[in-house]
Amino acid sequence: MLQEIGGARPDYEGPTGLQTVLQVALGDAGIPAVGLWAQVPHYVSTTASPTAARALLERLRDVAGVSIDLGALDAQVDAYRERLEESISERPDVAEIVRQLEANEDQVPSGDDLVSEIERFLRDES
User: Fold this and answer.
1) 49 CA to centre of own chain
2) Cα–Cα separations (whole angstroms), residue 33 to 7, 12, 14, 67
3) pLDDT tens for residues 61-110?
4) H helix runs in 29-110, sequence order
5) Cα 87 to Cα 103: distance, rounded to the nearest angstrom
6) Burial of 80 by CB count in 10 Å (0-12 exposed, 13-18 middle, 19+ buried)?
7) Residue 52 contacts residue 38 (beta carbons within 8 Å)
8) How far is CA 48 from the centre of its chain?
9) Residue 68 near residue 13, CB atoms below 8 Å
10) How far apart are CA 33 and CA 36, in angstroms?
């Protein structure tokens, strides 16, 4: 099913949550299931993101072939982005960090790479 909808990371092996437990149980019962998720930058991950919610609903609409009116979220997305940009502009130190993160986005190691590196470090320390 993941391949059918063009999902990414079918090889992911790592921390998961209740969603994955439910997906496995549904799969074991013969019910196809897929999970959707949206990434948000870590520096804003502690607040609800209308942008991420909208992206998830767009993908759900496409995958499930259902009609979802996303217009109500558009104003929230715009307000969220304005607040975020305003907050960042008020903190030059944070703005610089964000600029560096965005500039080096392709160079940031994946979560899998970080976990592997931590595991290697822990093995070497014991």
Assistant:
1) 11
2) 12, 16, 19, 19
3) 988 889 999 998 999 999 998 988 888 888 887 777 777 777 776 666 66
4) 50-64, 71-90, 92-103
5) 19
6) buried
7) yes
8) 12
9) no
10) 10
